[in-house]
Amino acid sequence: MNDFFKDPACPKILLVRLSALGDVIQTLPVLSLIRAHYPNSTIGWLVETDASPLLLNHPQLDHLHISQRKTWVKSLGKPHQWGRTLSDIRQFYQDIQAVQYDVALDIQGLLKSALTLWKTGIPHRIGLKAAREGARYFYNHQIDISSEAFFSPEIPIIQHFKALATAIGCDDRPIQYPLAPIPDDNQHRIKAILAGFNPSSPTIALAPATQWNSKHWPESHWSALIHELLSQTDFNLVLVGGKSDQPIIERILKGLHSIPENRLLNLAGKTTLSDLLALFETVDVVVASDSGPLHMAGGVGKAKLIGIYGPTAYRRTHPPQLQPTILLSKEKDQELPCQPCDESRCRLKTNACMGSITPAMVMDSINALINP
To answer: How far is residue 180's CA from residue 289's CA, in Å, rounded to a whole number?
Structure first.
């Protein structure tokens, strides 16, 4: 592996993980492995705009290269922006090339990441043989992990990511998820937002929305759970999500007869990623499906987690926090024959794996965590 580096004592290494939020969190152990093994290395990370706030001012990173790919693609339909877009793209690649990286690890393993990496001209480009969409043809070093092993529902995906770090000489160490420090401003903002809650009552954060239709827990289930929490406990409730999640959460709340102002806050579309990290540092329990908020909360490591899993393999993509974590993906101790399908839409058009997880099951789990 020393052949990869001009100066083995001070290697220059680029990590490529463009998106999404949960995936960036899942990649953090690779950063900690490299920094621990090569303390004098120069480490950069190539990420897309949406997930970049998770890495801003990270103490273990020397460079953060932010791809505005989505913006650049949109500009194709706006000829008056082409000049500015081409200038931005040129500057983006020049900034990466200026660091003179020795090696890059493509942890994303998709065509968009491999092609972007190839265009940087970095001499050693390492990825998994199991990479999708033909990405492996853009690498000049492939780690021989088969697709069968890579997509096995029994093997945590971090084990495959660690193989990339091993390829450049890193030794095996305990897995860590180093997050960047949460800015004081965001912590103060969240403290002010939650000031109306009864401080002696536990606070539960609920994240109802996901990008995959197949991972949606039924909206009626969310409404029923919130009703039970408000009527049967004194818990404070916070609903979180992005701007695009607002319609879902509004429909969920519309099914409730009355909402006490001092016990429920709808923060969908009203928080930044740094705000969410500060929130997850404060609340007692986070309830979500296999989504960015669940993994962000696990990375923070303060709240207890309830992951509502169905189409995805919880052994493969469990949130960072191993204990205590409750992963509800079974009915009567047996997974459905179609689980895990890892499909964004249910092929059976039933979403039975999610629908079979009842509000009562989640309610029992919350109570068990609050009152062990």
So the answer is: 24
